[in-house]
Write a structure and sequence with these properties.
The chain is of the alpha/beta class. The protein has 14 helices and eleven strands. Helix 4 links the parallel strand 2 and strand 3. The protein starts with a strand and ends in a 6-residue tail after the last helix.
Length: 309
């Protein structure tokens, strides 16, 4: 097995600095102008940490640009009828993987949200001052999300810095189980995706995602049989009031992630930041390192696959 990456504690110690340096060195005016020009039905793709970026960008383009925007996996485009779509935005740290190739093979207008460039796509380019070497993407996920947040908030850097400064504040309850259920809604999609992806890639726990209303239709039986921990994103109305009343006695440990922001896009970004530091704490407690990863041979075979999806 190969050991690859920087130690987790190093990556987290540099996380805020790497995000802010990317904001300072990226030419935001052309990036934001290109975002503004994306019009018409749009697919947004990404895998791994970039799937979290795709979820967040799709949410922002839908709300700010007022367009139909669908988060997809690159392989989805091969098996869906894409005739109703006009654009595809591929999110990728390098812009070089086979998922980007697949995203750009269906005859749509191509955009690449990346630190890299390629000739077959309109660039949505950002700058990286120092490359992160982490098996679980941290700065590689948070940098493009931060730039997307700045587009949404008309470049409110003070808000971004406040969120980053408060990100290390952990929830009161830290999950311990080897099975963790994640209760979320569309307004928490990016944060929930980060948790699921990191729990899986980091080997922290088996993660099961439940959309809030879908959970009501029998999915509570998993915990009844297993005795799991729960992470959820509470609201102060409707169904969430029932969850707050019932879930505490049903699960051994219930972790709430709630940054307190009223705007759902801002809250999803802030909750994703909190989720990152929550995962660090879980990894510490379990003696794992999210960044310095021992990679089995099969991982290299699958990650470097370059054929047809």
């Amino acid at each position: 097995m190969e050991i690859w990456g920087e130690p987790m504690e190093v990556c987290f110690s540099k996380l805020r600095q790497r995000v802010l340096e990317a904001v300072e060195t990226t030419d935001l005016d052309p990036l934001f102008r290109t975002f503004e020009k994306i019009n018409g039905p749009t697919a947004v793709t990404g895998v791994g940490g970039s799937s979290v970026v795709a979820a967040f960008l799709a949410e922002v383009l839908n709300r700010k640009n007022g367009i139909l925007c669908t988060e997809m996996m690159p392989r989805d485009l091969r098996y869906r009828n894409m005739a109703g779509y006009e654009n595809v935005v591929a999110c990728s740290y390098s812009g070089k993987n086979v998922g980007v190739d697949a995203s750009f093979s269906v005859g749509l207008r191509n955009y690449l949200f990346s630190a890299g460039e390629r000739p077959d796509a309109v660039p949505l380019r950002y700058c990286i001052s120092e490359e992160e070497r982490s098996f679980v993407s941290l700065a590689g996920t948070l940098i493009p999300m931060a730039l997307t947040l700045l587009y949404y908030t008309d470049n409110d850097r003070n808000l971004l810095e406040r969120i980053l400064q408060c990100a290390e504040s952990l929830p009161d309850v830290i999950p311990e189980s080897d099975v963790v259920e994640i209760l979320y809604g569309a307004e928490n999609r990016a944060a929930a995706c980060f948790l699921e992806s990191t729990f899986t890639e980091g080997g922290l726990a088996a993660a099961v995602m439940h959309e809030k209303y879908d959970y009501c239709h029998g999915r509570c039986r998993l915990n009844d049989a297993q005795g799991n921990d729960l992470i959820w994103f509470p609201e102060d109305h409707g169904l969430d009031l029932v969850f707050r009343r019932e879930l505490g006695s049903f699960y051994g440990r219930v972790t709430e992630i709630d940054s307190g922001y009223s705007d759902p896009v801002v809250r999803d970004f802030a909750d994703t930041c909190t989720a990152m530091y929550l995962c660090r704490e879980i990894a510490r407690n379990k003696g794992k390192d999210l960044s310095l990863k021992i990679i089995p041979p099969i991982s290299e075979v699958l990650y470097t696959y370059g054929g047809e999806l």
